Structure formats: structure tokens, C-alpha cells
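Summary for the steering committee. The consortium agreed at its last meeting that each partner would contribute one worked example illustrating the joint modelling workflow. Our contribution is presented below. We chose a case with several input lines so that the handling of multiple components could be demonstrated. No manual editing was applied between input and output; the record is shown as generated.
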Amino acid sequence: MTPLLEIQGLNKRFAGLVAVNDVSFSLAAGEIAGILGPNGAGKTTLFNLLTGFLASDSGSVRFDGRDLAGEPPHQIVNRGLARTFQLCRPFAGMSVLENVMVGCLAPRVRHRHAPRARARAILEAVGLAHRADAPVEVLPYGDLRRLEIARALATGPRLLLLDEPFAGLGATEIEPISALIRRLHASEGLTILLIEHRLREFMQLVSRVIAMDFGRVIASGTPADIVRHPRVIEAYIGRDDEVSETGEPPAGEPRGAA
Amino acid sequence: MKGRRATGVIVVLAALAALPLFIRSEYLLGILSVCFIYGIWATSWDFMSGLTGRENFGHALFIGAGAYTAAFLNGKVGFAPWWGLPAGAAMAGGLSLVIGIPTLRLRGPYFALAMLAAATIMQRLTLIFWQYSGGEEGIPGLDPLLESKAAVYYLCLGVFVVITLALLLLAGSHWGLILRSIRGDEAAAQAAGVNVTFHKIAALVVSAFCAGIGGVLYAHYQEAVTPDVFSVALSISIIIMVYVGGIGSLYGPAAGAVLLALLPELLRGLGQYRLWVYSLVLIFILFFAPEGVIAPLWRRVTGGATGGAP
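What follows is the complete predicted structure of the assembly.
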């Protein structure tokens, strides 16, 4: 069976600094996997390459058997590959429902489902239905995280890339989002790839971890294997991996995780 | 709430339609006609820039393109004046593609600056190619679109209302939602599957098309056109009207433009202090009501909570 996503020899360099270095891996349809790595390991850059927000220097990304080289972000979304952002990026000045409706207007889904009804159903699924008419400016951070996921779901993806879906959340807020991701994977059959720089959240959630450091894949395996992997331990020792407990890495993040 | 809004719109429109029955002064009807033309310009500016958040500092480019196309066809070639409407709108729409396609692909201030530069360059070109454009003097002696001032009043009012309602309809549609998402966050819009470049250019073409129609009406109202229609001052005054009306609401800028265009006339009794008071009023409004005046006021009166169509 051909994998849903196949990455081969992907490279990206920013002014001499190698952000993504010869990365290769693949995802099977229906898989839920995580990319682990310290801040600046190249995780977000990798996401930007996969979703067309950045052009790679070399290497290939195949999604559903099709080479994505040179495709703009909106076209990649319309092939069924959606993403969320590490920082919540709601459409200011619009209601929660309208935010999700924009995703429902993607050509991929627009003609199959009435956008408004579909947006309501998605809000229901992520637990934001009671907030549908609220302006996004009044949402607490946990709900913004849900909205971020809802808007990506609205485009009808087959593969969902979640960039630090727990960033900025307190300990009690993490579990409900984690449960939501598990539910989406189980009930919708969605293939999910998520980024996280803390190991703990991964253990219950993913079946496979791809560990990155300095732009390279340093290890790959089940979460239990990864925590014992010497290269992973080395990457984490001497680092304060809880530095950005509250969310974003500091401005001017090292090693170009765009 | 919807009912109150509809009633409000009908009352305002009925009052404007009945005005020529009470105003016998041709001068005043002419002033009001120009106010409606300003309304067209402000609403069309708001459709592109208010909805997508990409500010256009050279709306006069489209106004001038419409006005000069109409003036050239009527004054130099001798076409009937009505030909100016489709030709002027098409010329403005075409120019918007020339500016929009290279600059709206980029983020940053390129679009705003390109619009500012293009309008200024066009103003110079009217001086350089004076054989065709009449140079400093412009093109005088145009035929009016309609003979009586009252008829011109109704024409300008009609075009203004039709354009405003059409743009409000578009802004309230799914397309309007997509345009507003671009203002909200361009990268997030892309991630939601929006082809942001295409939609920004399409909105600019619609905006330019309407502004061009306004330019044609203006040229034939004045029965002349001068390089001032390309001026930076005109572009800026339209932006001020939009801000006073309430950016992004379309109906606010429409009403704001009519009132602000009328204000210097209303202040005529103040003589030499007129512009002084006018400027102070603007500064006060922009300082104390950064959201604008008319759109928030209208929402309060009609009980609407959020933006969108009235």
C-alpha cells in the first residue's frame, strides 16, 4: 500500500543555516504520528515546506501519490492536506462560525455541503457550538485552539498537520484537546501528524514518534522506544525543554524554525 | 431588527428621492449630485481596502481613468456621452489589473505605494500628452449626460444606490466572508484554502470598475475634466471619508462621503474659517471615534449588533 504522505531527502537552508536537513519519512493513511524536537529543531519549517508556505531547496513531498512541488498553499489544502498554526491565528473581526465557514468555502468541500450547516456541525464536533456567534476576540485561549483545529477540519482534509496544538495551554486544558485529537483520529479516520517539543503529551496520543534535532531526523519509533533512545536523550539533556511552557519560543528563535 | 434596518433604508432613500421637489436651487442639486459621486468612490474604496485590509492610496487612478476615458471619447472623438460609462469603467478595471497583478501577489506596502505612484504618474502623463488630454486645461466642453439638473441628480443618486447595494450584497455573501478573512490573517486564509492573490485582485477590479463609473459621472457633471481627478488630495480625501463613515461597513463610508462632501457647503456661512472648522471636525472625529461615526451610530439606532448589510 502506498503511503499517504511520502517525504524524500527534503532540505531547506536559510542563509547558510540548515533548518531542514535531508529529512525522509512517510505516513500511512490512518496513522497518527508526532514530530518531537527541541525548539529550533526544524519542525515548523518542515510543516511550512509540506504545506507550500515555503519552497524547499531540494527533495520531494508526495501526497496521495502526487508531487506537491511548486503548489501554492491553498492548492495543497484543496488536495486534502490542512494545517494549524503554532500561534492561534483566528480571522479577527469575524465570528467563530464565520471563521469556520471560510474553511468550508474551500473548493474541495464547497459544492458537496452547505457551508453554514457544515460549519455548525464542525463546531459541534470540536465543542465550540455554544460559541458560534461570539466574536473571536472574546474567546479564551483554549477555545482558540479548538477553533484553529475546527477551521482546518472545515477544509475536509485527509491529512491534518497540527503545529503544537497544546502550546499556551495549562495542564488542565491539555487533556480535553488531546481527547479531541484522539476522537478525530478514531471517528473520522483522519491521518494526523503533530508537532510537540514536550514528550509527555505524546505518550498517550501517537503511535509513532519522529524525533528531530538540528534539522535532521535522529530517531523514529514508538513513544516508549523514543524516550530510551540515546540520541533523543542527548538532544534533551542540558536543554530546558520547558522553556516555552507558556507558548511561543522567544523572538529570533535559534536555528530558523520559521 | 431587520425590519428596523429596512425601514431606516427606505426612509433615507425616500427623503433623498423627494429632495428635488423641495429644493429648487439648481446649484444645490448639483452639489448633492457630486456628494453622491463621492459616495460611489468611498464605497468602492471600502469594498477592496476595507474588506481585505489592503489600503489603496491611489483610488484617484481609477476615478481619473474613468473621467479621462469619457472625456476623450466625448470631447475629442465625438462619441455620445453615454458611451463613456462602459468605456470608462472598463478602462479603470483594466488599469486595476495592471497594478494589481504584480503588486497584490506580495505582502507589504507595495500595493499601496504602487497605487499612489500610478495615480501621480497618470497626472503627469496628462501634461506630457497634452495633444490628447488637453494638458493643464484638461478637456472642456463635454456634453452633460442629461439636460436638467434634477435629472442628473436622480441619475447620480440611482447609480450611487445601485452600486452601494450591489457591493453590500457582495460583502454579505460568501465572497465577502473570504475577503474579510484576508484582512483577518492572510496566511491563515491560505491555510483555510483561500487563493488570496486571486481574491484580492478580483476585489480590486470590482472596486476600480465602480470608481471608474463615478469618474465618468463626475466628468460629465462638470462638463470638463482636469488633471486634478488624478490628484493625491482626492485619493486621501476619499480615505478620510471612509474612516469617518466606519471602514469595512460600506454603508458607513457611503453616508460619510455624502455628508463630508456636503460639509464645506454647510459651513459656507463661516466664510474664511470654513476649512479651519472642517479640518477640526475631521480631527475630532478621527481622534474620538477611531471606529468611525456613521456605521456605529446606524447600528445603535437600528439595533444591529455586528457589521454586515443594513
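Chain B is about 75% helix and 0% strand. Residues 97 and 205 of chain B are 7 Å apart (CA to CA).
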